[in-house]
Amino acid sequence: MDDKMITISDKTLCSGCAACANACSVNAILMQEDDEGFLYPLVDLSLCVKCSKCVQVCPYVNLEFTVKNDSEELSECYAAYNKNEEIRSRSSSGGMFRAFADKILLENGVVFGAVFDDEFKVYHKSARTAEEVEEMMGSKYLQSRMEMVCREVEEELNKGLKVLFSGVACQIAGLRRFLKQEHENLICIDVICCSVGSPKIWREYLNNLFPDGQISLVNFRDKTSGWDSSTMKIRSGKQEYVCCIYDDMYFKSLRKNVFSRPSCGTCKFKNRNRVSDITLADCWGFSKIAPEMNDNRGLSSVVVHTEKGAKLLSEVRGDLVLKEAFLLDFERFNSNYIRPESFDKKIRDKFWDDYKRLPIEQLIVKYSKTKKEAILIRVLRKVFGKILHNKIKKLVRLVLNVLHNRRGAKQVLQDDKRFNETFRFNGRNMPLHFKKRPEWKLIVLYRKYQANYDNIWVCIIGICWIAKDVKSVLILKGI
Fold it and tell me: Which residues contact 116 (CB under 8 A, 6 or more apart)?
């Protein structure tokens, strides 16, 4: 990095906090999107006066004001949730951010946080009303544009107003480096993140889901079906996409870090001596930390780092349900508190190579599979490639036998002594070649439900059972 102006030669050393762009007095720095959709500072040499302000505020160059003495770190830990059930239901976890934000608003302060724009990209903005804070609620799993927020924070602090800033740790580090001094009226809350996803991939993901529709709602963590089974919900007109976050292709690919920001893999702001006053996260490990508090509506982990943070928590304590906890438990069940996500550089590079040639849907599906799933699918493709034809023939034969000769199917049950003897032992003694017959599943269904001559529905269930297997094979073969 040049000591006179900001230059990014190693992308793992830039989080896109935009502190440099905010510090430039001649506005010579533009946050430019790269090929992966992430923002990096680009200096206009015709305007730059080489004052080095941009270099001085970079948290990767100087850590002053981003760390404190270890003796000042409180590390007071709680499992908590907001008593207001309406707020809690609209939050990703326990509704803690809203409790702190409402307190700042009551004191005529200003809240800064991440919101969606009209195209459902994410950026930071200020809020002075409860309605504006509402937009900031809920996790957003992609990079947020900081724009000129650092300047706005400084302006509000200079007016003597209280400011609550919410973001991820690297954004708070950039803000503190920009301010270059401690402000008693500034409260910083960081949200534990695994990594931030590419806005470029996110845009294409949305366009693939609703290519012709105008999206009206995005909720990364909808809790209608429960907190521990949150769903991604996206609405466009009368259409709605709802998928469990553990099954959604965007989430699965993001967790593999194939399109995460490079700096997330070496994040230097994840440690016990946090850059913020308060840290918030989902309270995973609730069964050990606070089993009595979990009602599947959302539970937060709260870690207080400073006296300012402790004071704010005490002021909103009446609005919360709290239980003291241990930091080691939080670290155990949420390792992202102290460790950055590990990146497989080869897989990540291959993802972006494939991005140039594969449609987004095919790309996301390919990289959402776990390593074991990918190996299994390759093996199954080879195996089922040989037996697919025979499988379909067996299905056709089963359909004919059942639908056109039900009496014959019933006779099988009555006369097959081998089946009657072995069924008592769950088929353990049955010859392998007999168990492979597709009729076996039908026979088991007949036996289990004591089917009779007129029960055609059980026959249909048996057919669907086999058809499901064939459908899986067809999908694997890409047919």
Answer: 122, 135, 140, 218
Q: Where are the domains of the chain?
A: 11-57, 70-355, 370-477
pLDDT of residue 400: 52
Task: State how far the Cα of 433 lies from the Cα of 312, in Å rounded to an integer.
Answer: 71
What is the CATH code of the structural domain delimited by 11-57? 3.30.70.20
The mean pLDDT of 339-362, rounded to a whole number, is 90
Radius of gyration (Cα) for the chain, nearest Å?
A: 29
Whole-angstrom Cα distance, residue 142 to residue 1? 26
pLDDT class of 418 with cuts at 50, 70, 90: very low
Amino acid at 47: L
Most distant CA pair in the chain: distance in Å?
Answer: 95
Q: How many CA atoms lie within 13 A of 313 on its CB side?
A: 27
Sheet with strand 300-304: strands edge to edge: 122-127, 110-116, 163-167, 186-191, 278-282, 300-304, 76-82, 320-325
Here the tokens at position 310 are 């402790």
Residue-wise pLDDT for 66-107, tens only, equals 877 777 889 899 999 999 999 999 999 999 999 999 999 999
Read off the pLDDT band of 4 (50, 70, 90). Answer: confident
pTM tops 0.70: yes
Q: What is the 3-state secondary structure (H, E, C) of 85-96?
A: HHHHHHCCCCCH
